[in-house]
Amino acid sequence: MSDSDSLQQIAHLRREYTRGGLRRKDLPDDPLVLFEQWLQQACAAQLPDPTAMTVATVDSSGQPYQRIVLLKHYDAAGFVFYTNLGSRKALQLAENPRISLHLPWHFLERQVMVLGEAEKLSPLEVIKYFHSRPRDSQIGAWVSKQSSRISARSVLESKFLELTQKFQQGDVPLPTFWGGYRVRFSAIEFWQGGEHRLHDRFLYQRSENGWTIDRLAP
Questions:
Q1: Which among 19, 135, 197, 215 is annotated as catalytic?
Q2: Which among 53, 62, 87, 113 could bridge 146 via Cys, Cβ 3.0 to 4.6 Å?
Q3: 34 is annotated as contributing to ligand binding
Q4: Is residue 17 marked as binding?
């Protein structure tokens, strides 16, 4: 197959979205109510990694970056994820706390986008979650200086074995460079696929009196 044939195939890849619509009359006043319903349905459908979400940050030059992390908690205060505090995203958030989250549930023909600002979690919250993780994941947090350049995977594997021996007895201590963020959200957009590309999009924006809800053109 030639490159042009391959590109033409990609250009024509599409499918109809037929799983149902989203109507204004069915929307709750609080976006978290709908988010919880959709997340529960994604879990019930046994989608791979239903809590996986893209995190978008911006560097000092305005260059956007994206990566995938796992949502670990959410409530009215915000959406929580954990990471290395020396990572690229953490350094960018230190300069500009504005952030976007995106959760794609393709099988259900749904997407959710969150806009807000990230703030660091308290040490108590971080310690509590860190010690709830599997032991190997705790050790893994020590191994990687996230986003730094390494010569080969064997560097990570050797370090993991070394630290497994070091922390053989007792609890794995919390690394000083490991923590988490709470995204205090100011807007949430819900996207539901529709036939003929007439998708349903609703944007919740925080206001003084609660939330405003607007339907957006697809």
A1: 197
A2: 87
A3: no
A4: no
- pLDDT tens for the chain, 218 residues: list them: 566 667 677 888 777 677 778 999 999 999 999 999 999 999 999 999 999 999 999 999 999 999 999 999 999 999 999 999 999 999 999 999 999 999 999 999 999 999 999 999 999 999 999 999 999 999 988 887 766 676 778 778 888 888 888 898 889 999 999 999 999 999 999 999 998 888 999 999 999 999 999 999 99
Q: Is 82 annotated as a binding residue?
A: yes
Residue 199 marked as a ligand binder: yes
Structure tokens at 77: 């205060």
Q: What is the pTM of this model?
A: 0.88
Is 23 among the residues known to form the active site?
Answer: no
